[in-house]
Design brief:
Length: about 80
């Protein structure tokens, strides 16, 4: 089930039985595996792949620059 307030890019691919909570944003070219639950207010940046049967909890930001002060833009 995809909540009506969720925003999902037209280029994102969601497998079967994916749940997307209220006010979540799914970016372009995101792949989400079957049975995954995306909680409310989650942001998934473009070009992220999430496997099957995962649970992303509320207010998570996936694929974004980390809040670590030691991060200097290197590939991770």
């Amino acid at each position: 089930m995809i909540h009506p307030t969720a925003i999902i890019d037209s280029k994102a691919e969601l497998d079967s039985n994916v749940e997307v909570g209220p006010y979540s944003i799914i970016g372009e070219n995101v792949l989400i595996g079957a049975g995954t639950i995306i909680g409310p207010h989650v942001v998934i940046e473009p070009y992220v792949t999430i496997g099957p049967e995962c649970h992303i909890f509320q207010y998570a930001a996936i694929g974004a620059i980390p809040q670590s002060l030691k991060f200097e833009g290197e590939k991770t």
